[in-house]
Amino acid sequence: HFYYRFYLDRAMRKAGLADDYVDRLGPWREMLDLGLTTFAEEPDPTRSDCHAWSSSPNYNFLATVCGIEPAEPGFKSVRIAPALGSLTWVEGRMPHPLGDIKVRLQRRGDDGVSGEITLPAKLMGTFVWKDKEIPLRSGAQNIDL
Q1: Contact at 8 Å (CB) between 80 and 126?
Q2: By Cβ atoms counted within 10 A, which residue in 7, 61, 69, 82 is the most buried?
Q3: Full set of structural domains in the chain with CATH
Q4: Could you tell me the CA-to-CA distances from 123 to 15, 21, 85 in Å, in that order?
Q5: Is the pTM of this model over 0.85?
């Protein structure tokens, strides 16, 4: 059931398996191939072609693939730990009370990443890639690991 996929995906991220997320999106790709512009309650048979149970990719693209998550209560700082999986690049934008958080990253070789992270004014954070952490400040900054 799609309802439980949200929890499965969060558990896999916690277990260090977030890079597998993109490859597990087959049922959602199939819905897009059918011409759906919203996600159905279940693949087949379905009772609803627009259902919250199957909307978890809307959240997980930003939280898992782009890796944007609050680092402390109230989103007072941000932790960006992307899981590109089989993707070679990713770009996303998440609204934040202080302004948008923007991520544009490209894989470099097998283990590297480069790109740009933009944080709104007065927001600080951390970028995490593999076993490396980089402090983030407000504004645009280049990443090259």
Answers
A1: yes
A2: 82
A3: 1-63 (no CATH), 66-145 (2.60.420.10)
A4: 28, 28, 27
A5: yes
